Amino acid sequence: MSLRHAILGLLARQPSTGYDLTRTFDVSLATTWPASHSQIYPELGKLEGAGLVEVVERGPRGSKTYGLTDAGRDELRRWLVEDEPDRSQRNESGLRLFLTPLLPSQDRRSVLARDLAHVEQQSAILVAIRDQIEEAGRDDPFAAQVDLGIRVNEVISAWLAEQLDRT
Amino acid sequence: MSLRHAILGLLARQPSTGYDLTRTFDVSLATTWPASHSQIYPELGKLEGAGLVEVVERGPRGSKTYGLTDAGRDELRRWLVEDEPDRSQRNESGLRLFLTPLLPSQDRRSVLARDLAHVEQQSAILVAIRDQIEEAGRDDPFAAQVDLGIRVNEVISAWLAEQLDRT
DNA sequence: CGCATCATGTAAGCTGTTACATGATTAT
DNA sequence: ATAATCATGTAACAGCTTACATGATGCG
User: Fold this and answer.
1) Do A6 and A78 fall within a single domain?
2) Is any Cβ of chain A less than 8 angstroms from the Cβ of B101?
C-alpha cells in the first residue's frame, strides 16, 4: 500500500490538490510509482477519513488543496524509517531479457536493438534534465536521483551493446 | 498480462508442471516477475483453453506436465518480437529514495545505510551464482543476466555510499 | 508412523487500469 | 465561440496477494 505513502510524501513537500498530485506522479514518479487520478482522488478521501490529511484551502472550480496533519507527518516518518521496504519489483523488460535467449539470432538482435534505442532515449532525457538543473544552479536533491538514473542507464546500455555484439 | 507470456516462455525452455513453474518463478524470476501458484494454476487452465499449451504427460499425485502447442510457440515469438514492451515499473525503493530528502539527516542516513546493506547482500548472492556458473563451466545464457545484475548493483551501491557521505 | 515435500486447486479482498462522466475557467 | 486546461469524481474489469483447503508420495 505505497500509494498512500507516496501521497503523504508529496504533500509533505507541498500542499496540493488531487490534480497537482496527478501531474507530479506523471512527471516525477512515472518510472517509479505510476498512479492516475482515478486512484488518487479516492485515496485522498480515505486519507482524510483516517485523519492523515486535511483540506487546507478551497479554490476555484471546486478545487481542494490538501495538506498533512500531524498524524500524517508521523505516519510518513514511521513508514520511511521503520517499515521494512518491500523490495519486490515487476519489470516486464527484465522478463523479456530473461526469455530472449530462446529466440533465433536475428529476432534476438532486433529485440536487443529496440531495447538499446529505448534506453539511450531515456538517457538523453535524463541528461537534458540534469543540464537544466545545473544551469538553474539550484541545489536540487532531485539532481542526485537523476544522476543515479543516468548511471544505471549507462550500465544497461553497455550491457545491451555487448549482448548485441555476441549475438 | 505478462504472466501468460512468462509461463509460455518457461514452458518453451522445458515442459513443466504448475509446481515446477512455481519454483522457477521463485528462484529465477522473483526479482523481475513474481508469481505464486494461486495465479499460475488458473492461468495454465486458461492457456490450455486457448490452445496455447497442452498436457504432455500425467505423473504421480495427479501431476500434469504442460508443454507448448505450435500456437503457443507462435504467440510467444509474436509477443517477444512484435509487441511493444510495457516499460512501466513499480519499485518501492525508488519511491523511498525520492522521499528521503524530506527526512532529517540522522534518519536519512539510517535509511540509506539499510538500503546499502541490502544492495551489498544482493550483490554477494549474485557473485556467488556467477562463480558457480563459472566453475560448472556451462555456457549459460543466464550468466549474462547475472552479470548485468552485478553491474547495476555496483552502480547503486556506489551512489548510496556517496549520498551517505554527503548527508 | 510422522514429517517434509510434491501437487493442485478455490475464494476473498485489495490494488491498479481503462473508460465513462461532468463541469468550470482561461486563452486565442 | 471554442479549444485547451483545470478539476473531480465513479464504475467495470483485470491482476495480484493472502488465506483456506485437500490429498498423495517418499524418507527416516
Assistant:
1) yes
2) yes
Which residue range(s) make up the domain with B50?
A: 2-82
Q: Is A87 domain-assigned?
A: no
Residue of B nearest to A163 (CA): B144
pTM score: 0.93
State the Cα–Cα distance between residues B57 and B45, nearest whole angstrom.
15
Same-domain status, B74 and B99: no
Mean pLDDT over all residues of chain B?
95
Q: Distance (Å) from the C-alpha of residue A60 to the closest C-alpha of chain B?
A: 30
Each residue's pLDDT tens digit, B11-49? 999 999 999 999 999 999 999 999 999 999 999 999 999
A21-50: b (≥16 Cβ within 10 Å) or e: bbebbeeebeebbebeeeebeebbeebbee
Q: Which residue of B has its CA nearest to A112?
A: B81
Secondary structure (3-state) at B58:
strand
